[in-house]
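During the reporting period the student researcher (J.K.) took over the structure-prediction task from the postdoctoral fellow and processed the backlog of single-chain submissions. One of the processed entries is reproduced below for the supervisory committee.
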Amino acid sequence: MATAASTTSAAVLASRLLRRSPRLLRRLSVSRAPPAALASSSGRPLPPLARHSLGHRARMGHTAAAAAAASEPALGLTKPNAIEPPQVTFSAKDVEFSGWKGDILAVAVTEKDLSKDADSKFENAVLKKLDGQLGGLLLEAAAEEDFTGKTGQSVVLRLAGQGFKRVGLIGLGQNAPSTAAASRGLGESVASVAKAAQASTAAIVLASPSGIQEEFKLTAAAAIASGTVLGLYEDSRYKSESKKVHLKQVDLIGLGSGAEVDQKLKYANDLSSGVIFGRELVNSPANVLTPAVLAEEASKIASTYSDVFTATILDVEKCKELKMGSYLGVAAASANPPHFIHLCYKPTDGNVNRKLAIVGKGLTFDSGGYNIKTGPGCSIELMKFDMGGSAAVFGAAKALGQIKPPGVEVHFIVAACENMISGTGMRPGDIVTASNGKTIEVNNTDAEGRLTLADALVYACNQGVEKIIDLATLTGACVIALGPSIAGVFTPSDELAKEVTAASEVSGEKFWRLPLEESYWESMKSGVADMVNTGGRQGGSITAALFLKQFVDEKVQWMHIDMAGPVWNDKKRAATGFGVSTLVEWVLKNSS
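J.K. obtained the following structure tokens:
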């Protein structure tokens, strides 16, 4: 990822160090074997690369040596623990909440719900009934704890003589949830109080169920369920101790019941497993998640859902045959070889009405290369998340392998590699040639993601697809422009922009469309090649998107998503799984 802290002076310093210290150069050039595969989401260690069944298509370009290397111990002998992700069963019920039996009854309340009548009793019918059942305890607790129903507030009471052992009040703010994001937040709050109480069963009821519009109830139910699972999940695979998840059953009361809502709740669980998988990939350190191991993780999706997935993994020699000089230039410095990953989803009945491609940036570590990341704000210690685009791609693939949408073929494509420094590496000023024949003068080795995406986009167009979305932690400029929670969207297609906007309204993820200002391309012109790989500081996200546009067929609808901000939660110091939910929704909207 290109950052503001990547400077020419840093490149000069690195170059001088290498010239002055041949020993350092030799050490950087020594080959390190890729580490063992990650523990899977199911808790079982993944097998070596050569052992995977890849569905119906043979693996291309792999050698026995590469397969053996994938089973070698990680640098530092780090091995992720096998942690079982949350397994929660959701049920939608139309029952009387006061008669529910279980560990904790969670009541979601707005600030208005806490209004009192002339007798200082709750006006809200649900709260009035529940408070009467508890002998005024609810009203008393709300007053003593200064609970006003604001978002993020909660009060939990231990009870005796009731069917439910605890009751919790969960604040919603001024209004009942009207968006997927707000509904997911409610689920996360319920997960928090359930974890604190070590509850194994819970029920969720809204004090004012009429506050949710009828047509939104299905989406709300799914978002609450998804938020609950994601709120329970903690990635402790790399910690010496892990916390046990107790919650196993959640009942949603008052949001409808029947086959349609049950299907939505299953969808929420499938989607959550994809988001968790995406988080795990980004959270994994670069000494564990090498390009070979990322390929192994992708291959496991194909073997697990072999009824709808096939996998093709291309090694260096095969990429050379396809003339992927731009991608291979980035990978040249690393002791861990690149792996070009292609998963293909086809519905079980074989009927395809639309062909899509989702391309993700897959830099499992980005040092910046000779334009090495230095100084405050360079975030080199976080550059394991530079494969966040590929995590979104494979998280979506895992979810779709379970959902199995009809009528749509989807290609999931990642050019995985590392951007390192060595005597074999790409230098500032080098010219590389992409697989569509266009030449690129590399004026900054830290603008490497776009070089890998160039060949991946050409490859995607060659699959005969109608629409392509690429996702990448591409520029620090986009974080400066939109902050840590919003991804930038670039596309010449208004139709595709509308599709993704509609998908994001269901997913609750935030996107903002930015202009593809063609006049800015002037700063990307080279005197000796077709283009340079980065322009000036101004409009950096726009010029990066314009660069990618050079590698997309004009007949293909294309969108670039710069997710450098929302890929990571600084407060939690962990990955967000951003992009998975919107991609899944987008594919479903294109299915028949």
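The committee noted the following: The radius of gyration is 25 Å.
J.K. will present the remaining backlog at the next meeting.
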